[in-house]
Design brief:
- Helices cover 44% and strands 22% of the residues.
- The chain has 237 residues and is α/β, with parallel strands linked by helices.
- The protein folds into two domains: 8-162, Vaccinia Virus protein VP39 (Rossmann fold), CATH 3.40.50.150; 181-233.
- It has a seven-stranded mixed beta sheet, with helices on both faces.
- A hairpin with a 2-residue loop joins β6 and β7.
- It binds S-adenosylmethionine (SAM).
- The site of S-adenosylmethionine has 16 residues, from β4 and α4.
């Protein structure tokens, strides 16, 4: 029989879900991750939730297609419909970093140290890393995953402390050993250089000058992080 295959991004998340977890997938859409985990008997309980009815219908259709029962489907905004004791492992994947931060901000119980958060922002990753580091979360690990030519960071966080510099908001907290770390840093450097060039071409607004100085500092730090990555991974260079 055909096997349900996960894309590399979802597979990385699945690999980090502890066996026997009480699992909740927020913004589940197609529910591929919860269905895959239930099919393999990897989770003890499973909630799949979404903000909108149409994705939740898709989620139920996936479960039906694969003959999976036992997933609890919830229509709710973020974690508003999940009680803290219902889940010990929560994924929020495929949403923007700001959206993920906003969802966590409305559920402060997620930083009680009893919940593992597996987060996979599609955009504004720096906003999410900054939010976590300034609001009582520790980033325990990060990994880069390549899917259709794009690099996506996946991170595990829980209540605790991580102090991040502005360069780390962009370049990552735990990517020094990641095989894709160099490419990730190069992509960030190019993006910020373009942003800086845009600011330099723009108006002489003093706000722009301050922003340009901040970007230059972050770029300097990213270049240093790249040196550190090369030193750690290509010691002879
Ligand atoms: C691109 S899909 C991601 C699906 C899956 N998690 C993945 O990573 O492949 C994003 C889903 O998040 C849902 N979503 C967006 N904001 C949400 C929120 N505040 N609460 C719950 N779901 C949300 C959308 O309705 C959509 O179904």
């Amino acid at each position: 029989m055909k096997q349900l295959e996960l894309t590399p991004r979802l597979r990385q998340l699945a690999d980090w879900v502890p066996d026997g977890a009480m699992f909740a997938d927020i913004g589940t859409d197609h529910a591929l991750l919860p269905v895959w985990l239930v099919l393999r008997g990897r989770v003890h309980g499973c909630i799949a939730s979404d903000l909108r009815p149409e994705p939740l219908r898709r989620a139920k259709a996936t479960a039906k297609l694969w003959g999976v029962s036992g997933i609890v489907f919830r229509l709710c905004d973020g974690l508003s419909g999940i009680r803290p004791e219902e889940a010990d492992t929560i994924t929020i994947a495929g949403l923007g970093g700001e959206n993920i931060a906003a969802i966590l901000a409305k559920a402060p119980w997620t930083r009680d140290g009893k919940h593992v958060l597996l987060l996979q922002p599609m955009t504004r990753v720096e906003t999410l890393r900054r939010y976590l580091s300034e609001n009582g979360y520790a980033i325990r690990r990060e990994a880069l995953v390549q899917e259709r030519g794009i690099l996506y960071p996946v991170m595990e966080a829980s209540g605790g402390e991580t102090r991040l510099t502005p360069g780390q908001w962009y370049g990552g907290a735990k990517l020094l050993q990641d095989p894709l770390g160099d490419r990730y840093l190069i992509e960030k450097i190019i993006r910020l250089q373009n942003a800086l060039a845009g600011l330099n071409r723009g108006s002489r607004d003093p706000g722009n000058a301050v922003k340009a100085d901040e970007l230059r500092d972050i770029l300097t730090e990213l270049l240093q992080m790249r040196e550190a990555w090369r030193h750690a991974n290509c010691p002879r260079n």
